[in-house]
Amino acid sequence: MTARARLRVVGVSAALAVAAIVIALVSISGGDYPMSLPDVVRTLFGGGSPADAFIVRELRLPRVVTALAVGGALALAGALFQSLVRNPLGSPDVLGFTQGSATGGLLAVVVLGGGSTAVAAGSVLSAIATGAAIYLLAWRGGGHGHRLILVGIGVAGILTGVNSYLLTRANIVDAARAVLWLTGSLDGRGWGQAAVAGGALVLLTPVVAVLGRALANLELGDDPARGLGVNVGAVRLTALACAVLLAAAASAAAGPVLFVALTAPQLARRLTGATGPNLLPSLLLGAALLTGADVLAQRLFPGHQLPVGVVTGLLGGGYLVLLLARTARRARV
Prior knowledge:
By secondary structure, this protein is mainly α. The protein is built from 14 helices and no strands. The longest helix has 36 residues.
């Protein structure tokens, strides 16, 4: 990468970090008790009235931190998946990991009748099991990105049917809880959920950063990467494990929020114009996207909050249709 390209990546990353912070402050300022941005900043740094401190630090800040962490974790997972499969459709939503996470959460609700802790644990464990199964099926005896996509789509179809069946077996109260969780929501999220997603980011981001150069080489193909000294099997397995854990932690914190992992890495790559996985810009853009989507979810219809997954589904679904249309148009040229 040239010096000018590196400078552009640094500039885009800085701009995205500022955008994420500004959107987070706007999110905190809104609600039934509106506050000005200076008041929000003053309260965050220890000032403000006791009422302001309670509303900002106890009610709104945990939700915003959860949104930032979940968005960053999903986008980073998406960047890893897309780099591994060398395909813009590589994301937890398409490859079956989101559906696997949902299966674990549904089992915790429908079969065990568990609360939020059981749902989070079931989501993480099921996502890990799904990731292991897809890896073994896709890379048995060697494989490539297209095989992973095909296996993931097949597994996603199977798990979607299982999830639908589980919903039919639930009583009306559990079914309502499950559907809300499946949609993806940040409503009522506290410091516990923020710690799950944020902890995964803190622990796994350094590991992912170390893999950055190897992943960029791996996008050239297995043989060229080996020629450059990359241990292809170890890098691929480590990257996949990190991506699965990040997606699982995000689902445990906010439910299976769709399309952030798909869109953020692609938009980040377009902003930077750089080759490679664009890990840091993707993370920051995902954090800004999900926090912005939550602002829209809270304020689009006054008096009625939407689950954030509805907003990301509408925006991400539109982006997916555009991406597929552009791909088809290139194929005809």
